[in-house]
Amino acid sequence: MTSIGILGSEGRMGRAIASLIEDAGLRLAGGIDRGGDAEALAEKSDVLIDFSTPDALEAHLAAAVANATPIVIGTTGLEERHHWLIDEAASEIAVLQTGNTSLGVTMLAHLVRDAAARLGNDWDIEIVETHHRDKVDAPSGTALLLGEAAAAGRGIALADASERGRDGHTGARTRGAIGFASLRGGTVAGDHSVALLGDGERIVLSHVAESRDIFARGALRAAAWLVGRPAARYDMQSVLDL
Ligand SMILES: NC(=O)C1=CN([C@@H]2O[C@H](COP(=O)(O)OP(=O)(O)OC[C@H]3O[C@@H](n4cnc5c(N)ncnc54)[C@H](OP(=O)(O)O)[C@@H]3O)[C@@H](O)[C@H]2O)C=CC1
Ligand SMILES: O=C(O)C1=N[C@H](C(=O)O)C[C@H](O)C1
């Protein structure tokens, strides 16, 4: 039976994953939190699942590489340097990184890419996300993933179009921009909407997470899928064959 090592095991996601491991036909190898031994966990796990903090990513990837243990990375708030580290590790082991492990958001990203490609630059794109009061990063990893999907549909780089945190006398909207807005409060597990706004009409594509179980089930499915794969960087689209 495939054994799972959880990095960030006592966090909200770590606990959700541990509670669903048996249902998924998998086994818990163990878990660590801040100050834990990632090397020892990687050694006794068939696959690692990381829902912790960006600061820990470098050590977690090093432990995975040293033990040739594949790793699923769900942690968000990643910066460019973290993505370089992931690419580097993925030249040696199988690494799956995603801002959202749910089936629904993976499908939403697919729809957003298609809509952005077909509607063209005359339609404005705005992404709105709402999360619980304890979330520490913004925009959410999912909002960025959806922004990447929209940008890919338009054949542009998100970094060249992204507009965040409007405030004050901003001037009119930049044509072709992909805008982001973040709301925080209460216990919201994660709501995302992508609005495509044309002249006189708009489309709003939305996803609502009713609980963290959807992320946990997706992460476990991704982990089981990753075992035995060749070294490469994967995402949820690969797991769901989209
Ligand atoms: N991709 C997806 O589908 C999803 C991604 N997320 C992301 O996952 C991450 C975790 O979310 P959540 O569970 O809500 O956060 P929590 O703050 O509840 O949990 C984070 C856990 O990571 C632990 N941790 C901190 N530093 C380290 C370290 N160096 N090594 C190992 N563990 C460490 C913390 O331990 P301690 O308390 O000791 O510091 C804590 O137990 C966030 O980035 C969040 O955005 C969340 C949901 C879905
Ligand atoms: O921190 C969370 O809770 C979540 N984080 C992920 C994100 O940043 O998109 C995924 C999910 O929305 C919950």
UniProtKB/TrEMBL annotation:
GO terms for cellular component: cytosol. Pathway: Amino-acid biosynthesis; L-lysine biosynthesis via DAP pathway; (S)-tetrahydrodipicolinate from L-aspartate: step 4/4. CDD domains: DHDPR_N. GO terms for molecular function: 4-hydroxy-tetrahydrodipicolinate reductase; NAD binding; NADP binding; oxidoreductase activity, acting on CH or CH2 groups, NAD or NADP as acceptor. It comes from the Bacteria. InterPro entries: DapB_C, DapB_N, DapB_N_CS, DHDPR_bac, NAD(P)-bd_dom_sf. Pfam families: DapB_C, DapB_N. It is an enzyme of class 1 (oxidoreductase). Its EC number is 1.17.1.8. GO terms for biological process: diaminopimelate biosynthetic process; lysine biosynthetic process via diaminopimelate. Homotetramer. This is 4-hydroxy-tetrahydrodipicolinate reductase. It comes from Flavisphingopyxis soli.
